[in-house]
Write a structure and sequence with these properties.
With 115 residues, the chain is mainly beta. The chain contains no helices and ten strands.
Length: 115
């Protein structure tokens, strides 16, 4: 059974940085899938904010472009999200999944940007 475990969230001041990690287990073919980072703010739909193909090509939503960087380590079956210049509107629960999402969602990791 494939499991995704997100970590690295927390409370940070505006302008600060966080690095999220998503470790997968039981995902034998991790390296063959595009992976994405999604977020869901209270009262809003879950949205894809960053994605990385199996070849390493990245894509970002306009709201995070230039501030977030997605990367992956196929040897560790892990995907990362470096978040810089964080804004209060980045506050959300962050999840990883394939892109498009085909795996059951993990618990996510909460990111709160507030002074």
């Amino acid at each position: 059974q494939v499991q995704l475990v997100e970590s690295g969230g927390g409370l940070v001041q505006p302008g600060g940085s966080l690095r999220l990690s998503c470790a997968s287990s039981g995902f034998t073919f991790f390296r063959t899938y595009a992976m994405g980072w999604y977020r869901q703010a209270p009262g809003k739909q879950r949205e894809l904010v960053a994605a990385i193909t199996r070849g390493g090509t990245t894509n970002y939503s306009d709201s995070v472009k230039g501030r977030f960087t997605v990367s992956r380590d196929n040897a560790k079956n892990t995907v990362y999200l470096q978040m810089n210049s964080l804004k209060p509107e980045d506050t959300a629960t962050y999840y990883c999944n394939t892109d498009p999402s085909i795996i059951g969602w993990g618990q996510g990791t909460q990111v709160t940007v507030s002074s």
